[in-house]
Each structure stands twice: as C-alpha cells, then as structure tokens.
Design brief:
The protein is α/β, with parallel strands linked by helices. It has helices at residues 40-44, 51-73, 90-107, 116-122, 173-183, 190-204, 227-240, 245-274, 289-298, 316-328; strands at 2-7, 12-21, 28-38, 80-86, 111-115, 131-133, 141-146, 151-158, 161-167, 278-282, 302-304. The strands form 2 sheets. Strands 5-4-1-2-3-6 form a 6-stranded mixed sheet, with helices on both faces. A 5-stranded mixed sheet has the order 9-8-7-10-11, with helices on both faces. The two termini are 27 Å apart. Bound molecules: 5'-O-[(R)-(carboxyoxy)(hydroxy)phosphoryl]adenosine and zinc ion. 5'-O-[(R)-(carboxyoxy)(hydroxy)phosphoryl]adenosine binds at residues 10, 147-149, 174-175, 177-178, 189-192, 195, 283-285, 287-288, 312-313.
Length: 348
C-alpha cells in the first residue's frame, strides 16, 4: 500500500510518499518521494520560531510540496494519509491537519494522526531515501528524546506502549542551547553553533574559572531542568561584560558539559532501574557530537541514533509511525472530526 505523510509541528514542512509492506514483525518502507521545506532562514531574524510566521509558511508550502511529491513519484493513488497531531505549536499543527483532512476527503482515503515524539523514536530506523525496514529490537527499550521542545526519558515496553518516566520541568535542552547561543549573539538554531565553539575550546584546553551548575543531576527521579543553567549563563555573561572569542568558547564548552552530563547520568540510571536492553536517542540534539561521544563512553547497551538528516523534524518518521499504527490497529483510524491539534500531546 502507499502512505502519504505530513509534518508541520514546528518550523519544517515535510511531505513524504511511501510504498510500504510487511507485517508488524518486519515492516518495510520504500520512499517514492520526499520533500522538506525548512524555515530556518525565516526564523533566524527572530532568534527562534515565530508561530504566526511558521503557520503562514506551512500554508504556502504544503500545496507546493504535495504537487512535487505526486510529480516525482508519478503516483496516481495512495491508500492512507498520516499527519502529525501533536505535540508542537498548535497554529503550525493545524495547518497540516486541515490540509490532510482536505486531501483525505478529496482522495477518499483514511486519515491517521501521529504523535511527533513517536516519530523521533522511530527515526533511528529510517533513511532519507531508498528502502529500509524496522528490525527486531530487544525490549524493554529506553528512549532519550532531546529536541527544541522536549527532554524526555521514555520507557518502551513494546512498539506503541510507552511510559514517560522523566521529563524537563521547565526548558528543553535544545531550547537552552538556542537561548544561550542568543545571549552570545550566535545565529539560530544555536545548538550546532555552541557545539562548534565548545569543540574549539576542548582542542585549545580553555576552561571557565567557575563551573556552571548541573541542574537536577542527583535528584532521585528521572526529571530534568534547564532554566537554572540558562539563568546561570545569563548572570555569568552579565558579570563578564564584553565577551572575547576565547571566553565565548570557554562558556560554550562549560555549558555543553553542564547540559549533557545530567542526560547521561539519568539515562544510565534509568537503564539500570528498568533493565533496558536497547537505547534509542532521538530529536535535534541527538546530532550533538559531545552527547554521542559521552553515550559511547558511558552506556554499554545497544544504542541507536538517527541518521543526521532524520535527527531534526521530517515527515519520513511520521509515515513510519503511521504504518505501525495502521498494522497494530488492523487498518482502523479515528473519525476525522475527532482529529485535532494537541500542542501538549503525550506518549502513552
Ligand atoms: O527535533 P528538532 O528539529 O525540533 C523540535 O522538535 O524541537 O530539534 C531542534 C533543536 C534545536 O534546539 C537545535 O538547537 C538543536 O535541536 N540542535 C542541537 C544540535 N543540532 C540541533 N543541539 C545541540 N547540538 C547540536 N549539534
Ligand atoms: Zn521534533
């Protein structure tokens, strides 16, 4: 069967068309066409994603990408539409949902809503072109989801059986990277910029006189907190006055260490407590080199990272979830009128 997948939860508009086959034991995917329109250049000016602008851009991009996908794939008919219904920015989510509902009616096909975070989990098995399948993994698995909007530890008992065991109480880790970058006049998105400076500081052996805090590192739960760390950087920069390049590098390094250490520490603890056999890391921050190195150093179970192009938001991961859900629910989908944008949708 053929599945069309749509993603508009934040600042990327994505549409993918797949040919899928296989049962729940070995679902496989062939990408017939994939289009992604990034709005990063548009939001750069604002130092972050501006929801009204994101909405306008999605509305403009969706029909263009849809036509392109049909043209490149030469497909005349598909069997299922899937769309991200949350979590994310509600005005942005609605654009994808409204468009998907229109197309579902027009083409007379069912519509499947998808949780964006489940997409980030499955992204580790995807590719940005060609064919791939979801292999058998050992459960229980644990997922560390780190993005601009989320910092979560999710226990996965089986596909589609999730339990959030810990999450950020305030800012997400990617958001902290972006905000600290902004304090140092670095462009949006700040994660890769901070990471580059931190790497230079590591090579040159630069350090800060006073360490930054590691928030909630030793708390007895699996929760995280990033707003205190961000504020500590704000005060530090205020006290230092004008920053030279070397000081910026040293701040970036100390911040990156302080942001990543609690992630590693709590992930390790959760693996021990729940006896996890597989670790899945997803979301934009999973592209962070220091995180990848520290995971390799400290975590001994099988660990999966998404391919670079699937670490950030995309519609490939949405179609993957849709097919698993379709198989698991034996083709049943919710009533279209019950499908709505849920900014705070949780995994369960
Ligand atoms: O998953 P994603 O594309 O969007 C959300 O759903 O939020 O994640 C974007 C986030 C941004 O905060 C960005 O700064 C961060 O991922 N990011 C990174 C790196 N690459 C992207 N953070 C740290 N290091 C990186 N190399
Ligand atoms: Zn995301």
């Amino acid at each position: 069967m053929k599945i069309l997948a749509i993603e508009t939860s934040c600042d990327e508009t994505g549409i993918t068309l797949f040919e899928v086959k296989g049962g729940l034991k070995s679902p496989s995917f062939k990408i017939l066409a994939n289009e992604l329109a990034s709005q990063i250049e548009i939001h750069k000016e604002y130092g972050g994603v501006f929801p009204a602008l994101a909405k306008r851009e999605h509305i403009k991009n969706l029909p263009i990408l849809f036509d392109k996908v049909l043209k490149t794939s030469k497909v005349k008919k598909f069997d299922l539409i899937s769309v991200t219904s949350g979590p994310g920015l509600e005005p942005a989510l609605w654009t994808g949902i409204v468009f998907a509902k229109e197309k579902a009616t027009e083409w007379g096909v069912p519509l499947m809503p998808v949780n964006h975070m489940e997409g980030h989990i499955l992204s580790v098995f995807g590719k940005d072109k060609g064919s791939f399948s979801i292999p058998k993994i050992e459960f229980p698995a644990l997922s560390l989801l780190v993005s601009g909007g989320h910092t979560e530890l999710v226990l996965i008992k089986d596909w589609m059986k999730y339990q959030v065991i810990g999450e950020t109480l305030d800012d997400a880790v990617g958001e902290a990277f972006d905000k600290v970058a902004r304090m140092m006049d670095l462009p949006y998105p700040g994660g890769p910029e901070i990471s580059k400076l931190a790497e230079l500081a590591r090579i040159q052996g630069l350090t800060l006189d006073k360490p930054l805090p590691r928030p909630m590192m030793y708390s007895k739960n699996f929760d995280f907190s990033y707003s205190g760390l961000k504020t500590a950087v704000l005060y530090l920069i205020r006290d230092l006055g004008k920053l030279d390049e070397k000081t910026k590098m040293a701040i970036a390094l100390e911040f990156e260490n302080a942001a990543i250490e609690p992630l590693i520490h709590k992930t390790k603890k959760a693996i021990e407590k729940y006896g996890a056999k597989t670790l899945i890391i997803g979301g934009g921050v999973s592209a962070n080199k220091h995180l990848q190195i520290e995971v390799k150093k400290h975590i001994k179970i099988k660990t999966l990272f998404p391919p670079r192009k699937l670490s950030t938001d995309n519609s490939i991961m949405i179609g993957m979830v849709a097919y698993l859900k379709y198989l698991k629910n034996k083709g049943k989908v919710p009533r279209p009128s019950s499908i709505k944008a849920e900014g705070n949708l949780r995994l369960k």
